[in-house]
Amino acid sequence: MAKKQYDLLFKLLLIGDSGVGKTCILYRFSDDAFNTTFISTIGIDFKIKTIELKGKRIKLQIWDTAGQERFHTITTSYYRGAMGIMLVYDITNAKSFENIAKWLRNIDEHASEDVEKMLLGNKCDMADRRVVSKERGEKIAVEHSIRFLETSAKANINIDKAFYDLAEAILDKMPSHSTPDQVKIRPVDTEAPTKGGCC
């Protein structure tokens, strides 16, 4: 049997309004590519990338969800089993930031309680068009006890850091040394021999 190419598998989810750059973030991280002509994600898309972290090979299965309301019912099922969720807004789009509260409610409704969350203010290279201050992003992250970064898929700012930080947070929460190879076998309780009696 072929040896597994990774030690752990983490399912990550990118959520946020349509057009905030979720797909660009995903492609920048997985393929180190940036394309200005992405069409809106229809339903769901995913990429896989294996990273090295703390001596472990971790396979990241990253799901990119559609931001449009009409795909909402499809995407809610993908929250199940997600270990990490990135909430993305666009710093040049106030509405996408205001909707973060709605996305957080969706996580509460559909994701597991212990899911790791991270807030990303994307398109930070477009400083001249910024309408959401970094302080506002930090404030909402603090209120919800989640990590926060400003990113740019175009200029490749904090993209790798975001994924590595999120993966590390998931890894840190896992019980240490619980690899399948180290399953302890409990000795079978030996019963005291019964006295043999005659029929």
From TrEMBL:
Its main location: membrane. It is a lipid-anchor. InterPro entries: P-loop_NTPase, Small_GTP-bd, Small_GTPase, Small_GTPase_Rab. Residues 177-199 are annotated as: Disordered. It is found in: Endomembrane system. Keywords: GTP-binding, Lipoprotein, Membrane, Nucleotide-binding, Prenylation. The keyword Nucleotide-binding applies. Pfam families: Ras. CDD domains: Rab8_Rab10_Rab13_like (cd01867). Signal peptide: none annotated. GO terms for cellular component: cytoplasm; endomembrane system. The keyword DNA repair does not apply. GO terms for molecular function: GTP binding; GTPase activity. Gene3D superfamilies: P-loop containing nucleotide triphosphate hydrolases (3.40.50.300). PANTHER family: LD44762P. Belongs to the small GTPase superfamily. Rab family. This is Ras-related protein Rab-10. It comes from Steinernema hermaphroditum.
